[in-house]
Amino acid sequence: MSATTPIRDQDTRAPAPAMKWWGWGEQDVEFTHEDKPGLAPFIREELGIDITRAGGALPAFGDLSIPEPQLPDALRAALETVADVSTDAHDRVVHGRGKSLRDLVRQRHGELGRLPDAVVRPADEAGVEAVLRAVLDADAVLIPFGGGTSISGSLEPPSGEQRTVISLDLSRLAKVLDVDPVARLARVQAGVLGPDLERQLAERGWTLGHFPDSFTHSTLGGWIATRSSGMQSDRYGDIAELTRAVRVATPSGMLATRPVPATSTGPSVREMVLGSEGRLGVITEATVHVRRLPAERVILGYLFPTWEASLAAMRDIAASEAGPSVTRVSDSYETAFSFATRKHQTVLDRVKSRALRTYLSRRKGFDVGAMCLSFIGYEGTKSHVAAQRKLTGAIVSRHGGVCIGASPGELYDQKKFDTPYIRDFLLDRGTLADVSETAAPWSALQPLYDAVRGAAREAFAALRVQGYVMCHLSHSYHAGACLYFTFAFEPRAGGDPLDQYALVKSAIQQAFVDNGATLSHHHAVGTEHAPWLEADISERGVALLSGMFQTVDPGRNLNPGKIV
Ligand SMILES: Cc1cc2nc3c(=O)[nH]c(=O)nc-3n(C[C@H](O)[C@H](O)[C@H](O)COP(=O)(O)OP(=O)(O)OC[C@H]3O[C@@H](n4cnc5c(N)ncnc54)[C@H](O)[C@@H]3O)c2cc1C
Fold it and tell me: What are the distances in angstroms from CA 478 to CA 211, 212, 321, 549?
């Protein structure tokens, strides 16, 4: 890279503290309903459950049945010369799976699956190559591990795997290697976690601008290997656009692409690595777009009278020159849930809220039960932000929407990374909550939305459970957008909770592919979404992927069983 700014070599970081083995995030952080007076009544009404009751007890780690690791002496010796090697039981359990609902339910029941036999942490790219060579020589299995936030079963070893399984943890490859301020590109090691990456870039005045909800615990390599998307993708792009070049340790040597802005070199090898979920090799480094930290950043809240009006407004905003960084709108069901999670309000807040409702229903003709809450974000210079707001405001008004100011948006911005903890809180109380997300052309979004809601309701009815499904639109593009569904229900006593969950999840996924949408916009394929791959990319598409994996990894040593 030319005109680079070298970045101070940092000490090799100690591995980040592991997430809970049974749930999301840090050990001492958990969700509470107690400061949100509307939540318990809302959930009692919508799901028929009482969240004020105490949560059930989790198994103690010491009571888990953890098989002894099968690590042959020769492989252990080869690995120990090139990396830190751990066979610690907690380490193996944390590295055995990601954080999908199925993962968490099974962990909580003490069903740990096929654990890796060792967790290996090389210090640099040469170490990754050496670990890969040692694993191949021993005909073992290697599963790259970033932050462990996979939500699609991308990390779990196949249940019947007889060979030794090595989890390759990339946490020691966590440096921003350099920033080219002219090209606005940064070379970054793949194991860096979101906050550490943004801190290192911000010290130089730069940002990647990639903020998935799992940002705090996921890594650059994981984002690339799953084709991740962050909340500000409307401005910065998804990780697929942000990633200009990759370096990958493959079974037959290093694969490296050039950080050129565009190229005509046949089918894109860079694109083949994007979303490869560890099946082609280990991503050690990427060159990514960086931008100057914006002078101004604001997220405004808006209310729309209906979901149909919201979709039309988002489509018009995407087609306009406004270019906001975030466009997100919740349907009326998610809006009701958001209002129910509001914290205790002051008297003044309550007065303002009543006045707003009166204004919306009497003056604007809103049916308050149908209204949809939206957040739209703007970034850039003061004048650019002002121009974006003006253009967007005009489109919002044209569709009957109303701006409700910056405070709801600020609250959302501050709290967004806390949301994942809710799922554990509900699981503690026997309620299953999960997500399914997709993308489709603008013209398909309304029928898709109706079909998914219908499919979920039918699944709840078949199970004879009271279920809730809600949705938001986020990540807008020229041709369409992502719809993100969240569903929850208390499974029937006596039945297997995961069978009941599979019925609802499958109904939703099937509705996606039956209605012109993709199996996932940004959660990858893994094992959980693999049954819908053929419907999505055709039989020939699956054959093409299988051929590629077979050629690169004939021994099926790299994360076997994922994607196809
Ligand atoms: C609560 C929650 C919220 C989420 N929100 C979002 C969101 O907003 N946007 C989004 O895009 N996703 C989201 N996800 C999904 C998940 O965070 C992403 O898939 C993320 O990109 C995974 O990154 P990771 O570092 O945790 O990878 P891991 O989970 O460790 O690994 C995922 C896959 O990538 C492979 N892999 C990891 N690192 C490498 C590497 N260096 N080389 C080769 N292969 C590698 C693994 O083998 C595995 O197949 C969410 C998940 C949860 C649980």
Answer: 21, 21, 12, 32
